[in-house]
Amino acid sequence: MREMFKEIVQYRQLLFSLAWRDIKIRYKQTVMGYMWAIFMPMLVVAAGIFVKKAFSILSGDPMDLSAMLSVGVKAIPFSFFLTSIRFSTNSLIGNTNLITKIYFPREVFPFASTIASLFDFLISSVTLAVILIFANIGISIYILWLPILLIFLITITTGVGMMLACANLFYRDVKYIVEVIAMFAIFFTPVFYDSKMFGKWETLLLLNPLGSILECLNAIIILHQPPNYYWLAYSGFWGIVVFLISWKIFHQLEFAFAEYI
Amino acid sequence: MSSNAIEFINVFKKFHKGERNDSLRDLIPYLSKKILFRSKNDQLREEDFWAVKNVSFQLKKGESLGIIGPNGAGKSTILKLLSGILRPNYGELHIHGRLSSLIEVGAGFHPDLTGRENIYLNGAIMGMRKEEIKNKFETIVDFSGISEFIDTPVKRYSSGMYARLGFSIAAHVDPEILLIDEVLSVGDFSFQLKCLNKIQEAIGNGTTVIFISHNLPSVITLCQNTILLNKGEIHKYGETKQVCRYYYKIYSDTRKATEDQCFTLQDMELYSSNGTPSTSFKPGEWAKLKLKVESKIKIDRLIMSFYLKKNDGMIVFDASSDIISNQYYSFNVNEGKEIELNFRMNLPEGAYFVGINLFNPEKGFYLYVDEGIEFYVSGPKTGGYAYMDLKW
Questions:
Q1: What is the pTM of this model?
Q2: ipTM here
Q3: A172 at interface of B, judged by CB pairs closer than 8 A
Q4: Residues of B in contact with A28 (CB under 8 A)
Q5: Which residue of B has its CA nearest to A103?
């Protein structure tokens, strides 16, 4: 385990170079360039507001501003998770020539994909923060939980991405499965709706660690409430465990990559 | 710390023939077959083959080793094992020092990035630090000779420019151990020469080099020792010139199969200008080749060819009797013949071989002596392939 960390630290420059490459090429030959990093999540948020409006018409409750903002708070981390997973899944097979020609720890590929997606996440988060300030949503002491929640989000994203990248290298079926899950993930993750709406089934939704992270984020940013500590611990547990186990498996299989790709 | 830069001890590497189970759909029938027909396990193993089989060699710091052999001999697999891309099935390998491999130039290039961006990216992939790349940036661009296009995306480059940039980056990594796999075949002649000089310079500075190429003259100039690899095994391992000569010989000898047993060479000897048998000559001296051949059968109109070969396997002269003097040789049953020919040793200093053969253009070879006599020419040191009678 320690050696794995050491190796990554040793190859950090390569890691950042690859991440920088991924960021750079993503918006090459596009008219809008980096603006896409803002537009894409905006589209998701717009869709979310639309769905919320439908809910409020059905239930007869008026829709308030905080409900709209909560869609943004949840949708942006969620789309970071999805882009990053999609991107990581193809990160190994998209670099076949490097894997079969040059040696370095292969973890850098999924890691670089996550970092590149993180860059987009950063841009859209800053935009969201500006909107939140203008909307005068206010701030509470619980915002201090934010860095920890972000760490959980990043570790779980990297961990899942790494596992899928590795699986996809051996079995190309994985990328199709990922596409299907990505398409339907929005339905079983509380992004456009609140888990509370499901009453006693709430627990089931929060068992999805991404769901519990999103609800905690909503609690600390929009609702000015403390996060639910049980679910916080639960998602933290998954974040760390998934990350470490995926990395370990990835590392164990790494030597076979060049042969099986 | 041993003085060996590379140790390769009894290394085996297995590869799989045919398709692997790439998708889950193929895996399920495969696994069920494996469980149901356990006895067929051996058959599955037959699909494997050894890409590298019991290969051992050692390389001291600052030495250079060539690896030659036909396609599919396992040359690139050895480099991949050395660089850590593949792991051996059996055997050990030890590497002491920073290693860089030039397995394919521009492998890490991204078509959408410009030349400048690709230098930074590829440098990082090759293990260079950012400051290091920054310092060497100008030299890399100068070496590649494409400074005009450095801010153009590499997808618009010609394949030659691509290769030039790729090699320039790789050549400036300054590793302790450099692995080179057939990368000089790209680029034009002057660039190839530049690369060879660069590699030679690296060897001079104490870099350990392993060089794979089909271009035997460059192997001869760069490497002290060479391995001839065939079907994953070491066929011959020794001094480069000898190995290269051997390689030329066995792979150009497919025609030898037609040789007829009914023809024998009884004697073959070289004589110096004063008539005594000799194997040592001076440049420009006349020499005489005498041979005695006997045929058990009646053969008409054979052509004799005579050639001289340098000890690295390069043919320096090749002539046949029909063209030079319109001469043909005919034999009756059990007839012996003495053939004489005179030639001048217009050769620079070195070791050479005389080869002869007798053949009929329609029927093939009757006698084939590839390295009949080894002889030496000693004289003033001159370059090139011929020695001209020179009045200065």
A1: 0.79
A2: 0.83
A3: yes
A4: 112-113
A5: B85
